Amino acid sequence: MSYAAWILLTASLVGVCCGLVGVLLILRRMAMMADAISHTVLLGIVVAYLITLQLSGIHMFIGAIIAGLLTALLVQWFHQLGVQQEASIGIVFTTLFAIGVILIATKAGNAHLDVQHSLMGEITFIPWNKTDLPFIGEVPKAVVSLVLVLIVILLVLLLFYKEWKLTSFDPVFAASIGIPVGLMHYVFMSLVSITSVAAFDAVGAILVIAMLITPAAAAYLWTDKLSMMLLLSSGFGIIAAFLGYYMAVWLDTSISGAMALSTGIIFIISFLMAPRYGLLGKFIIGKATRNESNATAG
Question: By C-alpha distance, which of 55, 46, 69, 10 is closest to 192?
Answer without folding.
Answer: 69
